[in-house]
Write a structure and sequence with these properties.
about 280 residues, 8-stranded parallel barrel, alpha/beta, 12 helices, binds 3-methyl-2-oxobutanoic acid, about 45% helix
Amino acid sequence: MRTTILDIQKMKQRGERFAMVTAYDYTAARLADRAGIPLLLVGDSLGMVMLGHSTTVPVTIDDMVHHAACVVRGSAKAMVVGDLPFLSYANADRAVDAAARLMQEAGVQAVKLEGGAAVAPIVRRLVDLGIPVMGHLGFTPQSVHQIGLRVQGRSVAAARQLMADAAALADAGAFAVVLELVPMSLAQAVTARLDVPTIGIGAGAGCDGQVQVWHVLLGLYDEMQPRHAKRYAELGKSVEAALRAYATEVRDGGFPTAANGADMKAEDLAAALAATDGATT
Ligand code: KIV
């Protein structure tokens, strides 16, 4: 049985913090599921870490469906949340179509979209149709060309706006809200005022949950080293060392050895060669 939106609601009520991590493929999802991570986000950050774009803006709904389906196949216990990509929720009808693809073709259990009061009617429409929706406030990467990559909500007006946006999302039926690059004290205040869980990234320990990007958490992506991220492993370095060792052994004849292959009886090979050689002379 996968984690449900009710489960994470109960975690908030019990004051139990929870982790979410991004995943974009089958193997990663299996590992995260085995590690007991209750929420997997197929984030449109895949645009950068999987597809090599410089922002999330070029990511399409086809990209999202493709990767989300792999994550769903690789997990059995975690709730899988899929990002609605840039402009796929520009109006309610488009949002319904995009969410339908993520839920029906990929099999995710929930979708996430960026924005506050302005997208609340879209959140309401999706929720009314039975689609669990996670909100995303603060630094919203799909708007990077408009707002820049920086902490959001620092001024009085911006903090008030962020609190109003969080309330609007919760009122519209969002089951959780991601707070990205938000001052820690503001994130804590929002968390205390919202009935639904907040999930922070660069928003401090006062949120109900935390989310991190797979490649950054595991040291696989060095184009971005955000202050708010902690590298729990240096897999990039391990992978590079392993690949160097492999290439060296192939060059030097250390790989493969007899243990890495299967063989046949010498007399069978001799008979096969005699027949072949006889036929060609
Ligand atoms: O796409 C993503 O990975 C995200 C997280 C940073 C929350 O939206």
